[in-house]
C-alpha cells in the first residue's frame, strides 16, 4: 500500500508558480517538474512535461529514462512552436511496482529515501555545483547556499547537449518513505533539517505540512514542490531489501558513471577561480531565481573569444594613437 501527500506553492517572492507536480496511482508514477525561463515560460515547460508523462505513464514497457526523454522532446517542441528558445524544466519521477522503486531525473529536482533512521539522497544533481563537489573544488560544508548552485549542466528542453537522464532502481522495505522535491526545498532547508522533520513526524501529510511551513517561514525565494510517499504492507519475500548502508553503496556505484560522464564539464573551467566564472550567454535559460543553463565550452567559442579580445586591443591602440596625434597638433 502507498500513502502519499503532495503540495506545490509559489513561495514568498513570486505570485506565479513554475513548478508542476503530478501522479498516476494506476501506473504507480509520481513526479515533480521545475520550469525555467521566466514567467509564461517556466510554467509552460513544466506543464508540458507533466502532460507528456501522464499520457505515457500507463505503459509499463517504458523505462523512466524513456519517459524523461519523452518529456524532454515535448518541452523542446513546445518551445520551438511557441518561439520560446529559453524554455526548460527539471524533472524527477518515481515509479513503484510491487516492491521495486525506480527513480529517473534530469536537472536538480531531487528524490530522497528514508530508511532505518537515515535520509539517503537517491538522485545526483545535474548541476555545476555537484561537479565541483565531486572534483573537490567545493567542500561539502560549502555547498549549501553556494552562489553557483543554480547553474545546471542539463535540463529538459535544452538540445545542446541532449539530456542524459539518471536512473536508479531499489528494492523497497515496509515503512520506507520517498520524498520528491524541487530546489525550492533543498535550497532552503539542509538535508539534516529535512531528516529531522521526517524522523519526528513519519506521517506523509504531517511531513509535507511541516517542511512547507519551515520553508515559507524563511526566505522561500523560489517555488516549492514536495511529494511524500510511504510504503507499507509489502508482501513477504525470500530476499530482504538492502539496509541503509548497503543502499548508500548501491547508489554510489550506480551514479559513478554519471559522475564520469559529466566530469568533462568541470574540466573546461579554470577551477581555482570558479566563483568568478560567468555562465555563457548563449544558450542561457534564466529562471526568476537566477538559475542558468551552462553547456560545455567549445574550441570554436574559445577561438571567437580570443579574436574578440584581439580586436578590442587593436581598437584601443588606435584610439591612443589618435589622442596623442591631436595633442601634438595643438601644442
Radius of gyration: 23 Å
> Roughly how much helix do the residues carry, as a percent range?
25-40%
Shape: globular
- Kindly provide the name of the CATH class: Alpha Beta
User: Under CATH, the topology is which?
Assistant: Phosphatase 2c, domain 1
List the helices and strands and how they pair.
Elements lengths: L1 E8 L9 E6 L4 E8 L5 H15 L7 H18 L6 E10 L2 E7 L3 E6 L2 E4 L6 H8 L15 E2 L13 E6 L5 E5 L1 H4 L4 H11 L2 H14 L6 E8 L12 H24 L24 E2 L5 H31 L2
Parallel strand pairs: 8-12
Antiparallel strand pairs: 1-11, 2-3, 3-4, 4-5, 5-9, 6-7, 6-10, 10-11
Helix pairs in contact: 1-2, 3-7, 5-6
Describe this structure in words.
By secondary structure, this protein is α+β, with helices and mostly antiparallel strands. The protein has one domain: Phosphatase 2c, domain 1 (4-Layer Sandwich), CATH 3.60.40.10. Helix content is 38%, strand content 22%. The protein contains eight helices and twelve strands. The strands form three sheets. The chain has a five-stranded antiparallel beta sheet, sandwiched between helices. A five-stranded antiparallel beta sheet has the order 2-3-4-5-9. Strand 2 and strand 3 form a beta hairpin. It is globular and about 50 Å long. The protein starts with a strand and ends with a helix.
